[in-house]
Backbone:
């Protein structure tokens, strides 16, 4: 049974793959692992499976070559086009604010750069310049990174019905397609392991992180490690982009980022502090192990307390309670709490803005927009409401109105900076 032609997966190999890349062997199947081991045993000339397992565990270079055989860096340009449309709107809204530093984006795992390059093409097509954003692309596969460095791709990397982007950004050469050097120069590729706590250390946080279709292959322990890593690397108001099946398995303080919530998350809502109030430390939110409830489905557990009579409930406590419910995934309860409470309080831009964010997370853009307008009626200098309206306008195709809101937000932010 120890021969390369007929053997079970060695327990040492299983443990190595779980420890080094967090792989849950059951997600790819033992036959795939066995094939990878046979390929490496053939390459090294080792015929005893136990001896090969010892070699892989003791030799980092052989370990990495085995990983190359195990993983399948499957990707293509503009995989799920709606993802790139959503992220492009998010980035453009930020990047075009005067004086703002470049928007920072991370793609990990990056495969051969198809995802990162798709982002660059999308942003260049909007008119953004190379100085307005930067992208780091990290992968554990040195083979994939070497392909990315060449910028040469086979027809397999182009699977969309609409290939107009290929005509703009690629040149055919020898049966392959060579990417425009401007796209290649915009991406900084690097080797890295998402289970390594020092990944991209010293480079600061990112406004957008792509980590698609990795978590579903990991053990629960490895998923937790990667989630902690993503939390460390993401800016407080940043956007986390996952595979469509992955948001429900996230355990931390994440909620849908908006109408396209199938794949995009952001951190739980943190209410703006009430002017003149001193905020107390916020308790950690309970881990969320299930997807948010439908906004029209009443919750049967952990319901909010009843609003107190007028004058006995502070705005600060209302915002804190809504914050807690939203971070537990109870959007319907959070909205119901806000609706009850706003009738007992003086009109508040903070409360209307929070309600707008809740409606947006629940996919109700009309009510979200109405709340953001009410926010501005009460506080015309509320730049976050202006930016939220800019993003909604872009999503419905009203580019002129989006520009209007974005420029208004820029003017507000500029005046606030000058007054400091």
Residues:
């Amino acid at each position: 049974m120890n021969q390369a032609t007929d053997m079970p997966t060695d327990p040492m190999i299983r443990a190595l793959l779980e420890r080094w890349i967090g792989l849950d062997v059951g997600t790819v199947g033992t036959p795939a692992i066995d094939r990878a081991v046979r390929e490496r045993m053939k390459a090294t000339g080792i015929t005893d499976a136990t001896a090969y397992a010892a070699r892989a565990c003791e030799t980092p270079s052989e370990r990495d070559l085995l990983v190359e055989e195990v993983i399948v860096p499957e990707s293509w340009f503009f995989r799920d086009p709606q993802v790139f449309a959503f992220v492009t709107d998010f980035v453009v809204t930020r990047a075009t604010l005067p004086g703002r530093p470049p928007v920072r984006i991370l793609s990990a795992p990056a495969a051969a750069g198809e995802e990162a390059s798709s982002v660059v093409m999308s942003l260049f097509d909007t008119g953004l310049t190379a100085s307005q954003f930067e992208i780091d692309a990290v992968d554990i596969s040195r083979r994939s990174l070497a392909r990315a460095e060449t910028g040469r791709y086979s027809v397999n990397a182009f699977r969309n019905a609409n290939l107009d982007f290929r005509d703009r950004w690629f040149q055919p050469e020898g049966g392959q397609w060579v990417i425009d050097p401007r796209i290649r120069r915009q991406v900084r590729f690097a080797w890295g392991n998402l289970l390594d706590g020092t990944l991209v250390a010293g480079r600061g946080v990112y406004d957008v992180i792509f980590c698609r279709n990795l978590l579903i292959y990991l053990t629960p322990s490895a998923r937790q490690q990667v989630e902690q890593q993503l939390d460390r690397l993401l800016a407080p108001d940043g956007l986390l982009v996952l595979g469509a099946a992955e948001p429900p398995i996230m355990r931390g303080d994440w909620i849908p980022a908006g109408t396209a919530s199938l794949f995009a998350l952001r951190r739980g809502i943190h209410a703006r502090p009430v002017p003149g109030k001193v905020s107390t430390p916020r308790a950690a939110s309970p881990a969320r192990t299930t997807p948010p409830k439908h906004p029209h489905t009443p919750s049967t557990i952990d319901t909010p307390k009843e609003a107190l009579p007028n004058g006995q409930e502070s705005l600060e406590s209302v915002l804190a309670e809504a914050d807690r419910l939203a971070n537990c995934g109870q959007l319907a309860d959070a909205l119901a709490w806000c609706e009850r409470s706003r009738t007992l309080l003086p009109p508040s831009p903070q409360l209307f803005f929070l309600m707008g964010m809740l409606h947006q997370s629940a996919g109700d853009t009309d009510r979200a927009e109405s709340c953001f307008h009410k926010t501005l009626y009460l506080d015309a200098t509320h730049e976050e409401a202006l930016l939220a309206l800019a993003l909604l306008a872009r999503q419905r195709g009203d580019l002129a109105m989006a520009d209007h809101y974005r420029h208004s937000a820029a003017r507000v932010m500029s005046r606030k900076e000058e007054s400091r």
Remarks:
- The longest helix spans residues 399-419.
- The radius of gyration is 24 Å.
